[in-house]
Automatic annotation (TrEMBL):
The keyword Nucleotidyltransferase does not apply. Keywords: Cell membrane, Membrane, Signal, Transmembrane, Transmembrane helix. This is DoxX family membrane protein. It comes from Streptomyces argyrophylli. Belongs to the DoxX family.
Length: 181
């Protein structure tokens, strides 16, 4: 019988809590569960904050959170799961960045914490109390960590960069309209 150590138990708790919260947030976006608005409402919101097209952005965000969170909780494909969730949270943090750090002011504290926890799990691995361990780490190889985080970082930079350009252009258009009136 295998004896699990504190590290395995700690990683299990971190995976379950981080993954569970992320999965619930994703379910709000995708299905409207837990008081969420589903794809239609979330898509409209995403469009209003500069992510276009809105429904596609809501789907991608919901899948990163629900899929990445579920996989993290299970400890399955941990590098890809953690990277996907971290990318989704980087997008959320970009939206909240103008409001500062603390969540009570609308800041990015919460999104950053979830994203960093997910990235940390991608790097640290799931521990022995995981499906990755039970399956012989076929979806959790060392080379997968930098690959997953690198691809996600590049995709996130493109998406957030495009969103930020749209937000700036919208603000400049509103400024021009004010001067014309």
């Amino acid at each position: 019988m295998t004896c699990y150590d504190r590290r395995d138990l700690g990683l299990l708790l971190l995976r379950l809590s981080t993954g569970g919260v992320l999965a619930a947030h994703g379910a709000q976006k995708l299905f409207g569960w837990f008081g969420g608005h589903g794809l239609e409402g979330t898509g409209q919101y995403m469009e209003s904050i500069g992510f276009a097209p809105g429904k596609l952005s809501a789907t991608a965000s919901g899948l990163a959170e629900a899929g990445g969170g579920t996989l993290l909780a299970l400890g399955l494909a941990t590098p890809a799961a953690g990277a996907a969730a971290a990318g989704g949270m980087a997008g959320a943090a970009a939206v909240h960045m103008p409001h500062g750090f603390f969540a009570q002011e609308g800041g990015y504290e919460y999104a950053a914490t979830l994203g960093l926890a997910a990235a940390g799990l991608a790097v640290a691995g799931p521990g022995r109390l995981s499906l990755d361990h039970a399956l012989g780490h076929v979806f959790d190889r060392g080379w997968m960590v930098p690959a997953a985080l690198g691809v996600t970082a590049a995709a996130t930079a493109l998406v957030v960069g495009a969103r930020n350009r749209r937000v700036r252009q919208r603000a400049e258009g509103e400024q021009e309209t004010l001067f014309e009136e």
